[in-house]
Amino acid sequence: MTDEEALIKYYGGRPQYSFGKLSKIGDRRVEYSFGKISRIGTDRVEYSFGEISRVGGNRVQRSFGEISYIGPVRIK
User: 76 pLDDT exceeds 90?
Assistant: First the structure.
């Protein structure tokens, strides 16, 4: 599962794409900065060593290189 798919599952909305890039998840707008997702709605997406480390203040946990939890929500 890619990071983008994990974020879609976390927010639980229908993804919408524009020009091959994710533009909305449900009613939340997806913003990009330097080619990476920087915001989803009002939630900030933070990176550490090139990987997503926090989403809206919730810590991201990884297992075998894939996102397994965002805060208390199990993704995998």
Answer: no
DSSP H or E run through 5: helix 3-11
Give the pairing type, strands 43-48 and 36-40.
Answer: antiparallel
**Contact by Cβ (8 Å): 10, 58:** no
Q: For the segment 4-38, what is each residue's pLDDT rounded down to a tens digit?
A: 999 999 999 999 999 999 999 999 999 999 999 99
Q: Are 54 and 60 in contact (CB under 8 A)?
A: yes
Q: Return the DSSP state at 33.
A: E
Number of C-beta neighbours around residue 24 at 10 A: 17
Q: Which amino acid is at 39?
A: R
Burial of 40 (0-12, 13-18, 19+ CB in 10 A): buried
Report which residue type is found at 27: D
